[in-house]
Amino acid sequence: MLFFLNNNEGALLREILYHISSMFDERQENIMKNKSREFVRDLGSGFAMGAASIIPGGSSGTMATMLGVYDRHLGHMDGLKKHLWHNLKALLPIILGFLIGFIPCMWLALSAVKYFLFGFSCLSCGVIMGGFPLLTENIRGIRPKKSYIIVLIVCAVVAAAIGITSGIMNQLGKGSLNDIIYSAMNIDPVSQTWIAGGHVQWWFYLTLIPVGIISTVAMILPGVSASMLLLIFGYYDTLLSTLHVWSDVLKGQGSWDAVLYVGGIYIIFAISMLIGFFTIVKLFKYALEKSRSLTYYGIIGFVAGSIISLFYNAETVSYYMNWTGNVVPWQVELSVGLVVLVVTTALMYFLSTRSIKKNRLAKEEENIDI
After folding, report:
1. Range of the domain at 242
2. Are 355 and 65 in contact (CB under 8 A)?
3. What is the distance between the alpha carbons of residues 337 and 319, in angstroms, rounded to a whole number?
4. Count of domains for the chain
């Protein structure tokens, strides 16, 4: 085509094509930059979600709400069944970041439970109390009915009673839920190592099914902590102790039979979480649609009651009874713990209220557009 044009026309056409090509290259470059920024942002969000989920009281659902993960990727989460690979590819940075944040924090949490339990409980309590606005936002402007208050009180009493009962049983020397679980897992509760010649009780694998399902719901629901529920039911430090089993085997100090049993625990727990994701979550959504206010009053009551269980349960009773002989002096841990409680509560409250304001503003803009 350029052959039939004179020099001026050809030069003009080449310049136009050059500018079009430059604009296309610049657009492609901007797209790549935006994708890179989005990848880094999602990776960081996943890291924060993984780190939060390991803290009793922390919730990956809460962190996802604060960081806007739900807003950006809710469609990908809902579409996993229909278009698995496409949606999974979009969620991959979050999943990768979650694992990067979750795995090292597991080791830190295991040490914290053993040597700094009160301070760790204060951290967890601060996360719960500071994140309360995210829960109460769901019932804002709704006049409480008598049935709502009853459900709230009952759920709070149940959550508190779980921890108090296990703590009293421990004090009376009747054993605790943790001891029963450790025994079923064939792990020594003191050294948290595999007991040679033993095996995991078959019924323990069955108990992992409801625990895994409940944990999935808590991980997805903002304001509710899966780790906190595991702690209350006695599965938190017991499941974390399996890390020592793997560590001993890798060092050549443990039995490979233990790996098979512990691997079975992980597999069943993972399957249970998948069941929870695809079934119980839908049932929970149905409950929210039918009686959203009543459901959230129950959740708020359970979360509030769990604060008591956080500080008084079988694990904390044993810890407090030997508090003066711990590695960290109790006076230091008490002081640091209270500071951590105040700082964490203030920080989480700031993040929660900021997230609420952003969501309210976004809804107002949507209403204006409509």
Report:
1. 2-369
2. yes
3. 15
4. 1
Q: What is each CA distance from 297 to 73, 151, 159, 217, 231, in whole angstroms?
A: 27, 7, 14, 16, 22
Torsion of Cα atoms, 175 then 180 then 183 then 184, to 10°: 170
At 339 the pLDDT is 95
Please give the distance of CA 103 from its chain centroid, rounded to a whole number. Answer: 12
Q: How far apart are CA 178 and CA 192, in angstroms?
A: 12
Look at residue 2 in the predicted model and tell me its pLDDT: 46
Where helices occur in 251-329 by DSSP H, the ranges are: 256-275, 281-311, 314-321
Half-sphere exposure in the Cβ direction for 30 (13 Å, CA): 6
CA-to-CA dists, residue 233 to 67, 239, 251, 314, angstroms: 29, 11, 31, 10
Please give the structure tokens belonging to residue 54.
């390991």
Kind and range of the H or E element at 348? helix 330-369
Which phi and psi (to 5°) does residue 6 adopt? -75, 175
**Series of mean pLDDT values for 10-residue runs along the chain (370 residues):** 51 62 59 69 79 70 64 58 70 83 78 82 85 82 87 89 80 69 82 78 89 76 70 78 76 74 87 81 72 84 84 81 80 92 91 82 68
d(CA 150, CA 69): 34
Secondary structure letter of residue 192 according to DSSP: -
- Residue with the two structure tokens 């409680």: 341
Rounded CA separation 233/227 (Å):
10
Q: Please provide the distance, in angstroms rounded to a whole number, between the alpha carbons at the two ends of the chain.
A: 50
Nearest to 109, CA basis, from 36, 57, 165, 156: 57
What's the half-sphere exposure (Cβ side, CA atoms, 13 Å) at 187?
29
CA dihedral 166, 155, 157, 141 (to 10 degrees): 140
- What is the dihedral sign for C-alpha 40, 44, 47, 49? negative
Residues 6+ apart with CB under 8 A from 292: 138
* Distance separating alpha carbons of residues 187 and 206, to the nearest angstrom: 18
Q: What is the pTM of this model?
A: 0.68
State which amino acid sits at residue 124: S
Return the pLDDT at 5.
46
